[in-house]
Design goal:
It is built from 12 helices and no strands. The chain is mainly α and 306 residues long. The two termini are 24 Å apart.
């Protein structure tokens, strides 16, 4: 058996290599010449910030918050989760790009990719900005973090001149939805990814995401009956929500694989926390030992690489 842990980053890199956007063995951020380039760069930026924050917390550089503080561990666990979600969501888009390039996607696959690119770019670059701020907080003045926030912001808004800023990405999704029917293909792809996943540890999340997909479908079907200005007004919110749902679905698939391959529950902890952060959580916000234990589980999966 291959001893290399199967992570969303590894899956992303393999897909990018297959479609010629990255040289074998290169960092995922080295993809080039693709609509997914900024999303991939955002994944790399998040990974870089996380690595710096973990290393600083672990070695206790001057001013950095130490790794043994429960609050800092919890914040670092959130950084891990956001990085994993961005990688997983981008990996699915890269897989669709691979299928389209090989002529194996069909019309629905091509439409799913058409809708996915602006969504994953918006979601990943937005997450990269928040992650950079949190990473700098962890570094607390360490010069190794200089430029993290500026670089992340550049990823999020740097394409605005040529039509790639947050508003432009949301409107690109709207055009893909109205003119080409791409939203139904994106949501059908998300639902298909979860088909057959029946692990008890993921049952509640699969049920929640199935409901969220239905809500997004209903909203998309209502576009034709709502004033276009009203649709445009809420499009960025819709696009981010769609991105969070699609990333969570990709994390569910990843978690199921980890359970099957190694009986590893880390992926379950990751998707549970991501869903709680972005898609609602009926549980009490009162801190619990379970939340602290989940943070420890998530961190344990990445600390060995620091």
């Amino acid at each position: 058996m291959d001893p290399t842990p199967v992570t969303a980053d590894l899956i992303l890199r393999r897909h990018l290599e297959q479609i010629g956007l990255a040289e074998p063995g290169t960092p995922t951020g080295d993809a080039r010449g693709s609509g997914l380039g900024r999303a991939v760069a955002a994944c790399r930026a998040q990974a870089h910030g996380l690595t710096l924050a973990l290393a600083a917390a672990r070695r206790g550089v001057v001013g950095a918050r130490p790794l043994d503080r429960p609050l800092r561990r919890d914040a670092l666990a959130d950084l891990c989760v956001e990085r994993e979600a961005s990688a997983a969501g981008t990996a699915r888009a890269a897989a669709l790009a691979d299928e389209v390039a090989r002529g194996a996607a069909g019309v629905e696959g091509s439409l799913a990719l058409r809708g996915r690119v602006p969504v994953v770019t918006l979601t990943a670059t937005t997450a990269a900005v928040a992650a950079a701020v949190e990473a700098v907080t962890s570094l607390a003045g360490d010069p190794s973090g200089s430029g993290l926030v500026a670089d992340a912001v550049a990823l999020a808004v740097g394409g605005a001149v040529d039509g790639g800023g947050p508003d432009d990405l949301a409107l690109e999704l709207l055009r893909a939805a109205v003119d080409e029917g791409a939203l139904s293909a994106v949501l059908a792809d998300a639902a298909e990814q979860m088909a057959g996943i029946d692990r008890p540890a993921l049952a509640d999340t699969v049920h929640l995401l199935t409901d969220q997909i239905r809500v997004l479908i209903d909203a998309a079907e209502a576009f034709a009956e709502v004033d276009v200005a009203d649709v445009e007004t809420g499009m960025r919110t819709y696009a981010l929500h769609l991105g969070h749902v699609c990333a969570a679905v990709a994390l569910v698939v990843h978690a199921a694989h980890r359970l099957d391959a190694d009986d590893d529950g880390t992926g379950v902890a990751v998707v549970d926390r991501y869903v709680a952060r972005h898609l609602g959580d009926r549980r009490s916000p009162i801190p619990t030992p379970q939340r602290r234990a989940a943070a420890d589980t998530i961190l344990a999966s990445v600390l060995s690489d620091v």
